[in-house]
Amino acid sequence: MHIIINNSSQQPIYEQIVESIKAMIMSGELGEDTMLPSVRALARDLKISALTVKKAYDHLESEGFIVTVHGKGSFVAMANANLLAEQARKEVEADLERAIQKGRRCGMTDEEISDLVRLLMEDSIC
Length: 126
What we know:
Blueprint: H1 13-27, H2 39-46, H3 50-62, E1 66-69, E2 73-76, H4 81-105, H5 110-123
Antiparallel strand pairs: 1-2
GO molecular function, one term: DNA binding
Protein name: GntR family transcriptional regulator
Pfam family, one: GntR
């Protein structure tokens, strides 16, 4: 599993791990029932504390992305299309909220921001 940790980021390391694994699950890179590296193995690979990896795995489990079977390891949970879609919507919503806040800080009106979003959507190929 390829996870890159940015030590100079303001985002905590465990959150970087969570986001990386979520992205791999949502993209299909990690399929259902795929076994994740053990906490110790991932900690050793990333050169971080096992407690940090454990915190990331606990977070992923609480959100339903992975399942931990004691004595066997952690596995990607059964793909729940609704959960994955909701997670993607939350991420888009957060990105849009940051963009709106940035526009307002730059002095843009709500109408200017809306016009810009509409324009970008019209020009989008997707």
